[in-house]
Amino acid sequence: MTVPAEDATFVDDDGRPRRTGGVWTTSAHIITAVIGSGVLSLAWAVAQLGWIAGPITMLCFALVTYCTSTLLSYCYRSGDPVLGTRSYSYMDAVGSSLGKFHHKLCGCVQQFNLFGSAVGYTIASGVNMLAIRQTHCTHRSSGGGSSSGACSTNASPYIIAFGVAQLILSQIKNFGQLWWLSSVAAAMSFTYSFIGLGLEIAKFASTGRIKGTITGVSIGPTVTPLQKVWRVFQALGNIAFAYSYNMILIEIQDTVKSPPSELETMKVANRFSVAVTTLFYMLCGCFGYAAFGDSSPGNLLTSTGLKPYWLLDIANVAVVLHLLGAYQVYSQPLFAFVEELAAKWFPDSRFVNKEIKIRLPGSSKDGNYYYNFNMFRLVWRTVFVVVSTVISVLVPFFNDVVGLLGAIGFWPLTVYFPVEMYIAERKLARWSRTWVLLKLLSFGCLLVTLVAAAGSVAGIIDDLKASKGS
């Protein structure tokens, strides 16, 4: 891009608009990206692990996340971390450091993870909408109203309603047109997270007794030894899901001004952000377990044991509003990827490439308020939403799916690629001490991913059996 000389002060060395981000804005981006629906299952995760292993596991994930995010920060610029060529996305950084094969592999993992997130968000929204209905039903029952037997336990209608809303939102063409939706989603994530924490503290204060045990949920009539093992593994996936943000770190780092170097700013921002989120996660997980003990719910805000009901309803509405936006934030890059690929493969196809301008109601004849209609976009995005909704209806188990998503994304995106990129960029000698330590870290996290995925799949199978038997 050519820039007039008088405008040179407003651009960076790569010709793009001058970056203005600092430590505080970067930390805010990271914290906003991390704190979300993952907090809803932390109390359940701590309940499976117990009072010792639960907090220690969260600290271990925090340490791994901090280490690998710092390694990834070194790879924003290829060659030299201060003067090297910039990367504008996670995939760009992988390709620059590791080559085309890893670039394509990273793309496949990312796109699958984005699709999985869409499924997880659809399930969470349906479950939390159902929770609003159940809260009012239970409240009326306790007040002498309708019988408790009338309280619905089927989330499918609410999942489908969420899918219908996404059918409409998904037809917005450009990610940039969704800035308002992203802002609302970020505000809502903080709303329900802090309300959830407040309700946990109130629940704990109302009893004045710390529930739970050192070893977590006890083996007994309702939990077999094998189920205990699977749930411990699944809890690892739930915690991993809550911490994952490396896949957007390069995009965040690309907003940082220099000097000082982007690397130095990101080091401070990573340290501060991981510390803040870990403290918040500790409070959410531990207060939830202290309040509910072994009966900690898989989704905190679906518990009818939290009061006042009206505040619980506000939190659940905030979850739905957040996930309406989060679904699009995660899906739009996948939409754009497929549409760009289709345009490249079929450059002469009118079905793929033709844009039809439709004047929006209320705009003047000569106005510029148009909707660009494209048949391929309509069909592809509709199919995407329908498939994600159908899967959500068939497997409506929030913390099982969250555990699986956390497991699938943790090792490749949070650990493997950052470790391999750092080794390549720093040209670490094979079998050197740092090389061995990083490889051991990667292998250990791979094992965590495998057992977490196995536990989550086992949880899904158990829940499917239970739902068929009920």
From TrEMBL:
<feature type="transmembrane region" description="Helical">
    <location>
        <begin position="178"/>
        <end position="199"/>
    </location>
</feature>
<dbReference type="InterPro" id="IPR013057">
    <property type="entry name" value="AA_transpt_TM"/>
</dbReference>
<feature type="transmembrane region" description="Helical">
    <location>
        <begin position="436"/>
        <end position="461"/>
    </location>
</feature>
<dbReference type="GO" id="GO:0006865">
    <property type="term" value="P:amino acid transport"/>
</dbReference>
<keyword id="KW-0812">Transmembrane</keyword>
<feature type="transmembrane region" description="Helical">
    <location>
        <begin position="155"/>
        <end position="172"/>
    </location>
</feature>
<keyword id="KW-0029">Amino-acid transport</keyword>
<feature type="transmembrane region" description="Helical">
    <location>
        <begin position="404"/>
        <end position="424"/>
    </location>
</feature>
<feature type="domain" description="Amino acid transporter transmembrane">
    <location>
        <begin position="20"/>
        <end position="461"/>
    </location>
</feature>
<comment type="function">
    <text>Carrier protein involved in proton-driven auxin influx. Mediates the formation of auxin gradient from developing leaves (site of auxin biosynthesis) to tips by contributing to the loading of auxin in vascular tissues and facilitating acropetal (base to tip) auxin transport within inner tissues of the root apex, and basipetal (tip to base) auxin transport within outer tissues of the root apex. May be involved in lateral roots and nodules formation.</text>
</comment>
<keyword id="KW-0472">Membrane</keyword>
<keyword id="KW-0813">Transport</keyword>
<comment type="similarity">
    <text>Belongs to the amino acid/polyamine transporter 2 family. Amino acid/auxin permease (AAAP) (TC 2.A.18.1) subfamily.</text>
</comment>
<dbReference type="Pfam" id="PF01490">
    <property type="entry name" value="Aa_trans"/>
</dbReference>
<keyword id="KW-0769">Symport</keyword>
<dbReference type="GO" id="GO:0009734">
    <property type="term" value="P:auxin-activated signaling pathway"/>
</dbReference>
<feature type="transmembrane region" description="Helical">
    <location>
        <begin position="26"/>
        <end position="46"/>
    </location>
</feature>
<feature type="transmembrane region" description="Helical">
    <location>
        <begin position="310"/>
        <end position="330"/>
    </location>
</feature>
<feature type="transmembrane region" description="Helical">
    <location>
        <begin position="378"/>
        <end position="398"/>
    </location>
</feature>
<keyword id="KW-0927">Auxin signaling pathway</keyword>
<protein>
    <recommendedName>
        <fullName>Amino acid transporter transmembrane domain-containing protein</fullName>
    </recommendedName>
</protein>
<dbReference type="GO" id="GO:0012505">
    <property type="term" value="C:endomembrane system"/>
</dbReference>
<feature type="transmembrane region" description="Helical">
    <location>
        <begin position="52"/>
        <end position="76"/>
    </location>
</feature>
<feature type="transmembrane region" description="Helical">
    <location>
        <begin position="272"/>
        <end position="290"/>
    </location>
</feature>
<dbReference type="GO" id="GO:0015293">
    <property type="term" value="F:symporter activity"/>
</dbReference>
<keyword id="KW-1133">Transmembrane helix</keyword>
